[in-house]
Amino acid sequence: MSEIYNFSAGPSVFPKSVLVQAQQELLDWQGSGQSVMEMSHRGEFFPIIAEQLESDLRLLMDIPNNYKVLFLQGGASAQFSLIPQNILRGKSKACYIKTGAWSEKAVIDAQNYCDVVVSASSENTAYTNIPEESTWFLDQQAAYLHYTTNETIHGVEFSTIPDAKGLPLIADMSSNILSRAIDVSQFGLIYAGTQKNMGPAGVTVVIVRDDLLGYASKTTPPVFDYQEQAKNGSMLNTPATYNWYLVGLVLKWLKALGGVAEIEKTNAAKSANLYQAIDKSVLYSNPVAIANRSRMNVPFVLADAVLDKEFLVSAEANGLFELKGHRSVGGMRASIYNAMPESGVQALIDFMVEFERTH
Ligand SMILES: *Cc1c(COP(=O)(O)O)cnc(C)c1O
Fold first, then answer.
1. Which ligand 1 atom is the nearest neighbour of the CA of 76?
2. Each residue of 196-229: pLDDT tens digit?
3. Which DSSP string do the residues of 234-281 spell out, in sequence order?
4. Domains in the chain, please, with CATH?
5. pLDDT tens digit string along 269-307?
6. Is 56 close to ligand 1, i.e. is its CB under 6 Å away?
């Protein structure tokens, strides 16, 4: 089997060394005689893995003590409904910023539970920018302000944390968590599915400030009540044990690399190189406002869509996979998460230059 580079938006590329370690430990975790898959979540060994997972995430993100860290199921999509169910706190409305397909979905689901105030939207520019913060309407009666830090499909990313003007700030960080340093204390709640930047699909991280706990509606299933899960170490029911273990290995890999501050430098360099190649070319273009371009997901279109198919076929022949853009946007998308090495981005750039030269 030859080496390839996988630019999938998610589930996505893993650090190779983590896959090798998982393979080595598959049948016998650290002399326990058991595979992690076979371990009782309440047994002798798994609680060690669980504790390490939480403490490594707390370390990497510098999570303050007045926040709980939960590892749930249902994906980020379940959170679209669970956030209003848990965080409305008797209020009837919530503010949302719409900057792309994922924040749009969050709005639609929240509307089942409350009045959604769309504080700002870039729908009228086809989600190619983030509206100026000074134009946002933040309703002081709202329970919280929700936004999506990185729009995985549209390639739009916030480079700073917005001022929520006193409202608890809630962020969907599914596709850029651990890719750049952030100040957790600015947030009421952060959530992320793990399959973009943290590991395999099947775990949803929720980081929530203590004062927001304990308000779940009466009809919220207990496994989706943040307070109940916090009291039970996210083990109110059987957790996704093997996936927790894999996420833990990815966190250890990131720690060994020097943590979030280090990977942020690499991510900045990787994305800058790719955008520069796109901007220099005549064939490729990216429609997103420069200040709002994502470091994780780089969509681009070819000047003539007739070439799309040939581009994808010859990219694969050169070992570059999963570059097809989302069906709603078209063109191409290169997802270059933490685990995508610089050599992968360089191989893509070299291929793009050569493809342009010959077309
Ligand atoms: C992928 C993604 C989701 C959805 O995640 P699921 O695990 O499929 O529910 C939500 N928000 C963002 C920003 C994403 O990238």
1. 9
2. 999 999 999 999 999 999 999 999 999 999 999 9
3. T-SS---HHHHHHHHHHHHHHHHHT-HHHHHHHHHHHHHHHHHHHHH-
4. 17-257 (3.40.640.10), 258-357 (3.90.1150.10)
5. 999 999 999 999 999 999 999 999 999 999 999 999 999
6. no
